[in-house]
Amino acid sequence: MAANENTELEELIRGAGGSEAEVEDDGGAGLDLVTLLLVARRSLVWVLLLIALGLAGSWLYLRYTKPVYQSSSLLKIDEKTEAGALGLGGAIGSGDVRPSSSKLSGEVELIKSNIIYAHLVDSLALDVNYYVEGTVLESELYGISPFKVTYKVKEGSLYNTRFDVVFLNAQQFRLSYNHQGQEVSGEYRLGQPITTPALELQLTATPWMSQNVPGKKYYFLINDGGTIGNYLNKGLNVQIVNPDANTIQISFTDFNPVKAQAIVNKVDTVYLREKLAQKQEATQRQLRFLDTQLIENKDSLQGAEENLKRFSRQNKTYDVRSDMSAITSKLVEQEKARLQLEQQADLLDEIAALIEQDQITSNEEASIAESIPGLNRLGDEQIAQQVTKLNDLQWNLRRVLRSYQPTTFTVQQLQADLRLAKNSTRRLIQRSRRLLQQQLNDMNRERDALNAQLQQLPEIATQQTRLQRPYNLYEKTYLMLLDKKMEFSIAKAGATADFQILSPASGPSAPIAPVRMMVYAIGLAAGIMLGLGVIAVRYFMHNTVTSVRELERSTTASVLGVIPTYDKEKMSVSKLVVDRSPKSAISESIRSIRTNLDFISSAKKKRLISITSTISGEGKTFVTVNLGGIIALSGQRVVILDLDMRKPKVNLAFGAENVKGVSTILIDKHSIQECIQHTTIPSLDFISAGPTPPNPSELILNARFDEMLTELYQDYDVILIDTPPVGLVTDGILIMRKADIPIYIVRANYSKKAFLKNINKLIRANNFTRLSTILNDAQASGLYGYGYGYGYGYGYGQGYYDEVKPAEGLVQRLKKQFS
């Protein structure tokens, strides 16, 4: 039996696999909206439950999560000094300096540096945190703690240790903490020093001490530097809001809104103080540096001055370039004077030549200046007078010669005066000529001396330039240092903060996290998504037939009807129930199937009906027995043959034995009449399968089988054959070929959808044009969508049925929904 069951299981797997491979070919693929809606309706309770769980999770998260508050301030970096206001902006710098992005980033790093953190710890007392325990969450008592702790920790392991405080009354308290794995506790009074080898403590009352304090549980933590630094780093956020506007936002997040606001305000204050201190310190360092440089530069400048003095004394000049210019000017002036002297010498030579030629003038009316050009430029009045006199004598002599003879006394006297005048003029010209030559010689010697001095000046000028260069440099540096010292002195006197608080820190009115609406939205969305996931999983895992629509959609065979679930009693084996409950829903559904059978085979009075399924357990024996009972109740004679010789069940349905039956008839061991068994319905008989033969298929192919059917037709109108499952063995197919109406049983919520493809394969392979299906064991939802046949017998007559279902309780309804 075990071997047979394994073989059947392997055949079932192969059949199902082959059917699944042909899903696409049979047109059953795609999204089934009706099935999806059915699954969604059945999963509605799960969806609502998951949504409720999501919202409950959101509520629990909000209930047990501390709200986070944020306080922030807005700063504007704005460099301003009093020096700019005094009109020294050109020398010192503009009064409003626009900082660069790098400067803003530097300010951000300064605010988040340990320098600011150290001042915050000192001014805000962040080294001790005070807490009070509530019913659900604990709260930090920042600034409102009923007691204050002064301490001195001698052992570092006590940092970040929880010290529990329970006030017994307004003056006494119990202190307990864990030290090196052991609990240390004791009762003390406020103000009493607590001294241990590891630490020294003293708790004192604050103005917040009241009568409500006793009975509550408090505790405090003493934080070390690393813990405080991590706390500030985690909560403090500094970011550049607008680089163009030079604005920086300082924000702090904490569970306590008052503490967050206090920290932001203190950061602003400490940042202001630190900026002023840094600026003053920088100015002091710069002033000290300037003083040092001034002393060093002054010494260097004095040395350069001494070198220039020695140079001036040695070369008898202070400015060589000015000397060169003066010598050059002298040479130019001397050259001009020498040219004038040479011109005068040439003029004297010309006058001397005229005197020797007696041609001082050729015009009696001409003046001495016109007769001797340039005589006025000579600058010698004696020569000019002598020449004028000589000219007058010559003119008189010519005038007298026109009236007298040359031998006359007057003419001779005039000639003698003329010779005397010429001699005097020659002497004057010679004397003037010697003086001019002497002056020219003196000028030439002076020119030579100046040229020699001028040739030496470049070397001297180079030496002076070499000495003047460091002097100028030291002088310029010295003046610049003096100027800078004045600038920094003014800047130090008028230094102000380089930022403005545009928006001071305000107390946060609402927490920034968690956002209640967002948390509830997330919980709702999570519940909906999980619900949709459940629907999707159940839909994709929904591989069984549940409704008539799925049956019609996946097969080409007609549907005879639907048999509802029989809930009146639990049956271990299939039984005949239509005779006991003729007015039940199940009886009416089978009557509907009988009516549809009459429509299919109305022309034939003798009918052979085979009933099969894919696997065992789909209810073919139940349908066979009760369909035979309904047909028999209509007045027709019906015989039921149990040909499922491997697992006979018809005899169990009627509570009879299976000693003889079809198998013994086919081997001629018994006759048909010997094997016919009667039932409680007079017109309904059955023949059991008989002992299980080793070769059921060969027996069915035997000619004796056809003879048996022919013999049964003589006494019965309808032969109903309970065939073996066609998904496991081939016996059922052999019988279906002989049947007038082959019927295929599909059990709701049990038969796989892949099994329906076997029906299509049977129809195509064997040309079963009359093959019909019946949906067995259908729930109420499986009945919807089917209007003909079954609706004819099931849909009319309010109160027609005598099957009254008992009232269901809440547990039964929930169990039914979740099943």
From TrEMBL:
It comes from the Bacteria. Residues 464-539 form the Tyrosine-protein kinase G-rich domain. The chain crosses the membrane at residues 43-62, 519-541. Its EC number is 2.7.10.2. Keywords: ATP-binding, Cell inner membrane, Cell membrane, Coiled coil, Kinase, Membrane, Nucleotide-binding, Sugar transport, Transferase, Transmembrane, Transmembrane helix, Transport, Tyrosine-protein kinase. It catalyses: L-tyrosyl-[protein] + ATP = O-phospho-L-tyrosyl-[protein] + ADP + H(+). Residues 273-351, 411-460 form a coiled coil. It is a multi-pass membrane protein. Its main location: membrane. Residues 31-123 form the Polysaccharide chain length determinant N-terminal domain. It is an enzyme of class 2 (transferase). Residues 607-765 form the AAA domain. It is found in: Cell inner membrane. Pfam families: AAA_31, GNVR, Wzz. InterPro entries: AAA_dom, Bact_polysacc_biosynth/exp, GNVR, LPS_length_determ_N, P-loop_NTPase, Wzc-like_C. Belongs to the etk/wzc family. Belongs to the CpsD/CapB family. This is non-specific protein-tyrosine kinase.
